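Service request form, structural biology core

Requester: graduate student, group of Dr. S.
Request type: structure prediction, single chain
Budget code: on file
Notes: please return the result as structure tokens.

Sequence provided:
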Amino acid sequence: MRNMRVRFSGETNIGLKRAHNEDSYFLPEEAKLAIVADGMGGHASGEVASKMAVDTVAEHFRNTAEDAELTWPYKLDGPDKYDANRLSTGIKLANLRIYDKAQRDENCHGMGTTIVATLFLEDKVLIGHVGDSRVYRFRDGQLMQLTEDHSLLNDYIRMKRLAADDVGKFPHKNVIVRALGMKESVQVDLLSDQTKINDTYLLCSDGLSGMIDDPGLAYILQEEAD
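Core staff response, request fulfilled:
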């Protein structure tokens, strides 16, 4: 990133309620690519879906690392179209593989996963996401949520059908309206953010953002040296 160095770290925790962990994550190998996925579904299929999502996107980046002339099945415009196509196509490929497995394997029927992925370039970061896993940016003491949740709760908030005081009492907070594996095709939200020295980008599932509010996250990022 020109004269900027990027450091990555990751952690996952099973929590106190479930018998198995349905989250998966990926830290960079060749490309500066980080991924978080939060699975859902009966049995252990949520864990299967999240791992398939992470593995598929990472594999896609490895396979396309040397192929700048690859014919993309999904066309995009804009200054970052090569990298944006690469990120979007990897996520859409993961969706198709998860959907196909859910149709063929009765133990995986109904499985799905959220995904959020960041690709760091010279002076910016590209973000692709589906579901309610999030990317935050912490800069100069201020925390900003960069992604928008694909959830029923967020839909109600956007339509102004829910007052701020009622958010905590909303009965369907965990209902996701878009995820990998729900349908044969999926819409991937893509955005770009200009990076600055000392920025921190936090990728997380709702296992973190649902337990700790934004001021709490900001406090931890501000106070922890590492």
